[in-house]
Each structure stands twice: as structure tokens, then as C-alpha cells.
């Protein structure tokens, strides 16, 4: 059922997690509008990937709530979150390079099937039905990312951009409403980055909601409808790219030892200060 205009698809309220004495994410309240692109940005160590890990069920928060389509999903396990309609990719392209493009995409769809080990061993009717559904779902995902014609190729034989698209297809195979992209443009050249931006726009135009963590500010400023800025695990701003780029707290966060001259979104500022490796698992 489509959301009422203005109703967030996902809401977090007072969200936080602590590792020992470290608050990796602290008291974050934010929302993601449906069928829009929201970028999560911030200097290294800001807590961006941890924020994604909380939303997707990889980490259990120590405080706060997460609501998706009006349902409280705060304590759900990862596979339950996927089943509700949230899928994600990771900083590194986690594909199986020796398998075919289609087989990779089918793995993503398997989270929605019900057959178990005995079904697979005995080739039960349920297993065969699930396999057909997985194949069909995987092909639909490959069509969405422009790889249907390369379904039979080994995934490792594709270009860097192609492998990124395989990773996105794996996530799309679970038929999500919300897609979380963790540094989707990492390792890609400018032309590949532009192509990826076009793909993301197409997916959102087709009804998907996208949230992404990204260091390439040219991509963020040219793609995002909304930006959430984290700093030291806390939200310091949320708004349009224009609003965020002029926010004094955001400028200070990037220029205060993380960048060298320029302004937010301009060469020499956020692009240089936040272009390094994303924070570790506890940031």
C-alpha cells in the first residue's frame, strides 16, 4: 500500500548503540521519505556504517526505536528485516565471482523462500517451486540493473561497474521497498560513477526508496533529495543538499580538521576530507 504523501517510510527515534564506553551512534532521530534518495554523510568515524547496521538488523541498538512502514522493527533479526522489505549492499562488493551473474542474484532472492535442507536434498515440490521463483525474481532484478543479457557470465568477468550492479541485483532480488547502499561508488571511475547515478535514479523512479552512505560529494550533491549529516555518532543536520551545504555546523564538522579549504561539496573540502576509508565496524 503506498504511503500517504509526507509519511516517512522509515523513522528512527533516539537511536543509539554503545560499544563499551564508546557511543558509536547516539540519540539519532531522523526519517527517510518514500521514493526519494537520502544520503548519510559525515567525516570519517561519524557512525555512518554503524547507522546502516542498526537499520538493517546487523546490530541491536542499545537505545531508541526503528519503525518501517509504521511497524516497530527495532528488535528484529537481519533476515526478518529483509523479509519486511529492507535490503542493503556493503562497502566491498560482496559477490561470488566464480558463480554466474544469475546465480548471484538468486542467492539474494533465497531469503524469501521457505524450503529447507531436506527439501533441497530430496528435491521436493516446494524446493523446485522455490527455485523457479528465485530464478524469476533474480532475472527481474537483473533486468532492473541492465544485466539480464549477461546472466550466464561469471560475475568475476564483469567490469567493476558490472560487479557493483550484480551486488545491487542481489539486494533487489529480495524485492525491497528500501535499499541501503553502503559506498556504492567506491573504486569506480568518474564515468562509472555517472552510470551508477543514472541507475539509482531509475530505481527510485520505479518506486524504490534509497538511502546511501557515500564519500564522493559530487555524487551526493548531484543525486540526493535529502541529506542526513552525522558527526561523532550524532545527527547535526538534515535537509536538502543546498540547505546542508550552507549549515554552519556541517561546514565546521568538515573543515574542523577533516578538510582543507573550500566549502561543503566543493573541491578541497568534503571531497578531500571524507574520501578516505569509512569508519570501522565500531564507528
Automatic annotation (TrEMBL):
Q: Which domain of life is it from?
A: Bacteria
Offer an example of a GO molecular function term for this protein. Answer: ATP binding
Key words, A-Z: ATP-binding, Nucleotide-binding, Transport
Return the annotated region ranges for Disordered.
261-283
Compositional bias ranges of the Gly residues kind? 261-274
Q: ATP-binding among the record's keywords?
A: yes
Stretches assigned to the ABC transporter domain: 10-257
Task: Note whether Transmembrane occurs among the keywords.
Answer: no
Protein name (database record): ABC transporter ATP-binding protein
